[in-house]
Amino acid sequence: MKILLIQLRRLGDLILTTPAISALREHLPAAQIALAVSHECESLLPAIQGLQKTFLTKRGLRDLSTWAQIRCAGFDCVIDFTRNDRSAWLTLLSASPRRIVSDRLKIKSKVRGSFYNEFVDCAMKQMHTVDYGLALLQPLGISALADDPVLDLPSAAKKRAATIVRDQIRDRPFAIFHPGSARAEKFWEPERWCQIIEFAATELGLFPVLSGGANDLERAHLLAIREKLRTAVLDLSGQLDLLVLAALLEHARLLVTVDSAPMHLASATGTPQVALFGPTNPFHWRPRKSPAAILFGDSPQPLRHFQVPEPKRPMNHISTAAVIDAMRSMLSAPAASAE
């Protein structure tokens, strides 16, 4: 059986799709599984096991060769995790006899709905993202329990991380701080980042390490933080690829981050973390099994129960004191996962 999985969204979405890929491989070990992703997610692919083929999409006519490959591959089944115009086109193009998607697509677009012939009763807005991915496997007779993201880090990434720990961190216990995101509305104030970084260094005895992307938005945010810092940090922002960062997280005592890809990497590595949410709802994206303290809005303590729907909340509603308390608690007795 040849199966094409389509996940064209961001890195976090792809990471949270890995439990479905793992379940598919476990239940159908003889299947040939291919995965179509956006080219922005290419760096993650070496850590996703169980795939026989991957397709990178770049949008528009640049995808002509990819379209031709998908058309000629002869897939028996396509599962669309993305549910947008591009993924619908790839599904139709595959000419697969089984084309699976959430039944909500029929409500959103009758035209796109006609591209599919099997519909699963599941609503992304009503489910955690991992559960949504697993639900789409039901037409194949697969019913799997939710799990953390599954990544198999390459040895090269682990070696690079070990070298950083030895040569730059000098084998000290350390915490990673990831303040950035592709969305400025997820930014927490630079002054507050400085306060918790200094707290980690002076009170918790953890050497601070900064990580972040290389885009202009994140670089400006990190610069504002560094200019206000009064303690030494190792700034690795823009220097680590995604898998080296994941490997470095395996060595870290703690991650403090906004809702972003490193949060999901920490779930895969089991690294304790404090995750700050504002414009996105933790109900859909939170770590659930790995040790995590989740802060959302003005709650003085990490939340353990979540509602859907949930309105957006400004990031500045999260207090410095709440983050510091969460950091301390995660190190003294890592919290049970939030359900």
Structural account:
- The protein has 339 residues and is α/β, with parallel strands linked by helices.
- The chain folds into 2 domains: 2-140, Rossmann fold, CATH 3.40.50.2000; 155-332, 3-Layer(aba) Sandwich (Rossmann fold), CATH 3.40.50.2000.
- It has helices spanning 11-27, 64-72, 85-94, 104-108, 110-113, 129-135, 155-169, 190-202, 216-228, 242-249, 261-269, 282-285, 320-332, and strands at residues 2-7, 32-38, 53-57, 77-80, 98-102, 118-120, 174-178, 207-210, 234-235, 254-258, 273-277, 292-296.
- It starts with a strand and ends in a 7-residue tail after the last helix.
- Mean pLDDT is 94; it is low at 335-339.
SSE ordering: EHEEHEHEHHEHHEHEHEHEHEHEH
> What is the count of distinct domains?
2
CATH fourth-tier homologous superfamily of the largest domain: Glycogen Phosphorylase B
Annotated CATH topology of the largest domain: Rossmann fold
β-strand percent reads 15-25%
What is the mean predicted local confidence, pLDDT? Answer: 94
User: What is the annotated CATH architecture of the largest domain?
Assistant: 3-Layer(aba) Sandwich
Number of E-type strands? 12
CATH class bucket of the largest domain: Alpha Beta
User: How many DSSP H or I helices?
Assistant: 13
